[in-house]
Amino acid sequence: MTEGGDWQRDVLRELADTPAAPASTGPVEASPPMPPAPVDPRLPSPPPQPASPTRPVPRGTRDPRLPLPTPESVPTVDPRLAHALGRPQHGDSLTQRTGRSLRRLTTSAGQDVAEQTYLATELQQPVTTGRIIAVTSIRGGVGKSTVSALLGRTFNHYRHDPVLTLEADAALGTLPVRMGAESVRWSCADLAQILTPAMQLTDVTGYLVPVADGGWLLPAGQGRVGAPMDVRTYRTVTLALRRYFAVTVVDCESLPGDVARTAMDTAHARVVVAPMTAEGVNGTRQVLNWLAQLPHAALASTAVALSASSPDTTLDEKTAATHLREAGVAVVSLPYDRHLAQGGPIHTVMLGQATRDAAVRLAAEAMHRAVRVR
Ligand SMILES: Nc1ncnc2c1ncn2[C@@H]1O[C@H](COP(=O)(O)OP(=O)(O)O)[C@@H](O)[C@H]1O
Ligand SMILES: [Mg+2]
């Protein structure tokens, strides 16, 4: 496991010792290293270059010398609808914001500082190989993409190495919109055919969507109803991309889909989003019982996001959290937030304070588990 050390330097060292190997569909842990990040990934990248024609083409992969036809760029929201999105609302009311500013002037910030230092240390932990954090839930519409986007943005804010948010849910997911992408072009299925061990980070990022405040996004598709992503594509893409990205947050389909099950089984840490309802918490507990049967300390490396996506929830939050914690997982409550409720791109500055705190806490819990728990 991977405590200490500088991620990119370690990858460089691994590279010097290990010849590059083809992307395979084997277990994630068996992944050989790929070339390191040569430049700051947040800089604009040149268009993708095909791999050197002198390299042999690994068996079972596409010949990278034959270019894949470039898909058209598709807007994530129909321009006729984009006008109807409305102004972003702040997660907190004006009264809440004013009250907090006044409290800040009168109370000691000592405890806050200690807590924030602890969270930042967890979030900024160095990694020697990319960590994968898979996000799923028992059904759709409970906040998987919202939580994935919050995690992706939080990691990107705290870390200086490359962060990827990957959509592994072909059910017309909302991740690209939530991440603020105006259009998408290349999908996971495309990259499964394109990625080769010879590619450098700048080649890879040519196929990804740059996120406005940093980091990268890979959508599952182009927002059309199509073939769902398969396990082979998921494995190929995550195996290849984890060599370039310190943290990959995967927005999975709902359980018990094959890709979600594979993602939960192979990730370094898992986040299960539980709706704040009795049946949601009950169903999530069943998922945790299933996770307990998986190898690799699956439960110990799981955090639950208890998400209130309605202002009218009546379930007692403490009782719900205790019920889930009994299974042996960390639980972080994500409050109802007006800005999240309105849909559309998530603007971090518009989130309520409690939502921001919950996102940082959840990301820290997930990172702690992805690096330290095995
Ligand atoms: N914490 C929250 N507060 C308010 N609304 C939320 C919250 N989380 C999710 N939502 C609402 O739920 C909707 C569905 O969330 P989404 O992340 O797309 O679910 P999933 O990916 O699980 O299908 C969002 O568009 C948003 O309106
Ligand atoms: Mg979704």
What does this structure look like?
It is built from 14 helices and ten strands. The protein has a single domain, classed as 3-Layer(aba) Sandwich (Rossmann fold). The N and C termini lie close together (8 Å). Helix 4 packs across helix 14, helix 5 packs across helix 14 and helix 7 crosses helix 9. Helix content is 37%, strand content 12%. Helix 11 links the parallel strand 8 and strand 9. By secondary structure, the protein is α/β, with parallel strands linked by helices. The protein binds adenosine-5'-diphosphate and magnesium ion.
Overall shape: globular
**Count of structural domains:** 1
- CATH superfamily (homologous) name: P-loop containing nucleotide triphosphate hydrolases
How are the strands ordered across the major sheet?
A: 5-6-3-7-2-8-9-10
Please, what is the average pLDDT? 83
Features:
binds adenosine-5'-diphosphate; alpha/beta; disordered N terminus; two-stranded antiparallel ribbon; single chain; 374 residues; 10 strands; eight-stranded mixed beta sheet; 12% strand; Rossmann fold; binds magnesium ion
Would you summarize the structure shown here?
With 374 residues, this protein is α/β, with parallel strands linked by helices. 37% of the residues lie in helices and 12% in strands.
Give the SSE map:
Layout: H1 7-17, E1 74-75, H2 79-82, H3 94-106, H4 110-123, E2 131-137, H5 144-158, E3 163-168, H6 175-178, E4 183-184, H7 188-194, H8 201-205, E5 209-210, E6 216-218, H9 231-241, E7 247-252, H10 258-266, E8 269-275, H11 278-291, E9 302-307, H12 317-325, E10 330-334, H13 338-341, H14 353-372
Parallel strand pairs: 2-7, 2-8, 3-6, 3-7, 8-9, 9-10
Antiparallel strand pairs: 1-4, 5-6
Helix pairs in contact: 4-14, 5-14, 7-9
The structure holds adenosine-5'-diphosphate and magnesium ion.
